[in-house]
User: Which sequence fits this backbone?
């Protein structure tokens, strides 16, 4: 059974049809890349899946159970964590305190959450910055903090919304490596990304969204050469 | 820091043996407003949910225990907790309305003001509670009636309230509730995404905050010996409650205490000296100016600056 199933989901904002019947799935342990031009509906889909918006039609299932009517914290309790495209660190709290909020989702005690947060902070390579308030972090560090907080909730599915945008090439490579290690721990990942090198190397499968519809699904190599994808998004054949 | 706090507590404990009754009164006000500020701090400082109607909880607590004492001869020591529970219930109603319907920022503030005003008007029109004239409590000097001939007793009760609330908030600061409140204050959406039930967390905070504030109402009634709807439920008292944590540093453990040590003596001094010169009411102007200065120059309150200065000093000396 698929970990995440999105079936015929529609969402309209006033006159704008953001999603027009989108279906996709993520299997346990899989990495799926979600690409498409700006305004294609990628972030809207994330909001629907994570409980921040509810669909006008269609259904989202986690482990086969519909998530309709669930609040974001309840979706999180079901094993789904997300990051935000525009990072939302708790500015006044330290890196460790930020991550601890996520860790509390699973920990029984505060001490246990603190210990878990320390592990995750070290895992993403921020231990030297653990005591620093989030407002003092660089963009690259904030992106990693965003990832760490989500990871601390011990999800089975991680939704990453452009965690590599704005990063330098070496920083991107580090995040790609981090995603691999997270995935190696059995966590499935659905990632929105414009950095093609990262999407194509990381993803087991790529879904292309355009104007609220899925226009192609397949392994990275096939997507890179798909004529419709090239026209709608890539502009030219992607050749790594 | 721990030693400094312990030393301060010892000094405060022996102080009544050394100073006169008038100075004790100043300290009683410092402690009592620090206590109310600490109760507000839990919701407003840590949780970022600004209530400008906390006087309502003082009023409910004060009227409940006083009414029970007058009508059923129930000791205010017990009535205090009944009043606290009544305030907590009102807090739950405000919290449910505000948080269930997602009121944030100004809209939540307006809700709290509106509820406090409704309470004030209801009490002012209830004859059994003395109407607009209020209730005057007869002084008996009976400790079981929460009345003391010796000002020192009030001093210790107020000190106990302040220390108790501060201890409780210290415990909450390093707990799930504290971490969740801070997360909600910083970014509610991000907190929700990380599994925080924002509704339940904020509701817990307002219920606890209202309960503590309601307990304080009994002290208020039995220290002033009179209750009027306009003062016990009015906006001026609500403002007094929030000024100290804001000036001292909202969302910090010692902010309300520090703020009260700054503001309460100032209020007292300006009231005495300015009112004596025929300038009554001028202390409010002084207050306003101070508040503007704090907002401009110390937007996070005095405590973070004090803590930073102490840390610098420690580094230099070691």
Assistant:
């Amino acid at each position: 059974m698929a970990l995440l199933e999105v079936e015929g989901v529609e969402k309209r904002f006033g006159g704008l049809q953001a999603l027009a019947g989108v279906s996709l799935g993520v299997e346990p342990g899989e990495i799926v890349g979600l690409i498409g031009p700006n305004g294609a509906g990628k972030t809207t889909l994330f909001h629907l899946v994570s409980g921040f918006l509810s669909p006008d039609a269609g259904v989202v299932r986690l482990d086969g159970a519909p998530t309709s009517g669930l609040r974001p914290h309840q979706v999180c309790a079901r094993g789904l964590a997300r990051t935000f495209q525009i990072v939302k660190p708790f500015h006044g709290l330290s890196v460790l305190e930020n991550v601890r909020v996520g860790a509390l989702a699973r920990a029984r005690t505060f001490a246990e959450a603190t210990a878990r947060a320390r592990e995750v902070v070290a895992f993403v390579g921020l231990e030297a910055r653990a005591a620093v308030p989030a407002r003092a972090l660089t963009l690259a560090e904030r992106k990693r903090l965003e990832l760490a907080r989500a990871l601390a909730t011990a999800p089975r599915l991680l939704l990453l919304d452009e965690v590599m945008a704005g990063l330098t090439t070496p920083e991107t490579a580090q995040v790609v490596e981090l995603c691999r290690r997270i995935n190696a721990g059995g966590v499935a990942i659905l990632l929105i990304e414009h950095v093609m090198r990262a999407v194509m190397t990381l993803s087991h499968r790529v879904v292309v969204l355009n104007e609220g519809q899925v226009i192609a699904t397949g392994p990275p190599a096939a997507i890179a050469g798909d004529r419709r994808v090239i026209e709608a998004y890539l502009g030219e054949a992607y050749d790594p | 820091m721990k030693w400094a706090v312990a030393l301060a507590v010892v000094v405060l404990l022996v102080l009544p043996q050394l100073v006169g009754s008038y100075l004790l009164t100043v300290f009683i006000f410092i402690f009592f407003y620090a206590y109310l500020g600490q109760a507000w701090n839990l919701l407003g400082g840590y949780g970022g949910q600004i209530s400008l109607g906390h006087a309502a909880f003082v009023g409910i607590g004060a009227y409940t225990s006083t009414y029970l004492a007058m009508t059923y001869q129930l000791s205010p020591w017990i009535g205090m907790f009944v009043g606290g529970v009544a305030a907590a219930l009102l807090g739950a109603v405000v919290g449910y309305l505000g948080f269930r319907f997602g009121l944030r920022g100004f809209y939540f503030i307006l809700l709290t003001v509106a509820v406090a005003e409704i309470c004030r008007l209801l009490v002012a029109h209830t004859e059994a509670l003395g109407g607009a004239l209020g209730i005057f409590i007869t002084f008996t000097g009976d400790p079981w009636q929460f009345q003391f001939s010796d000002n020192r007793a009030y001093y210790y009760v107020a000190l106990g309230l302040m220390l108790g609330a501060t201890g409780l908030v210290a415990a909450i600061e390093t707990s799930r509730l504290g971490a969740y409140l801070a997360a909600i204050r910083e970014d509610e959406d991000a907190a929700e995404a990380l599994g925080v039930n924002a509704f339940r967390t904020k509701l817990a905070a307002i219920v606890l905050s209202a309960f503590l504030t309601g307990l304080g109402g009994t002290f208020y009634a039995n220290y002033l010996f009179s209750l009027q709807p306009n003062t016990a439920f009015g906006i001026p008292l609500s403002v007094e409650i929030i000024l100290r944590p804001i000036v001292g540093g909202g969302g910090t453990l010692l902010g309300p205490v520090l703020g009260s040590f700054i503001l309460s003596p100032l209020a007292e001094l300006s009231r005495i000296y300015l009112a004596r010169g025929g300038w009554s009411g001028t202390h409010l102007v002084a207050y306003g100016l101070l508040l503007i200065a704090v907002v401009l120059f110390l937007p996070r309150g005095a405590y973070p600056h004090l803590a930073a200065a102490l840390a610098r000093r420690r580094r230099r000396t070691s």
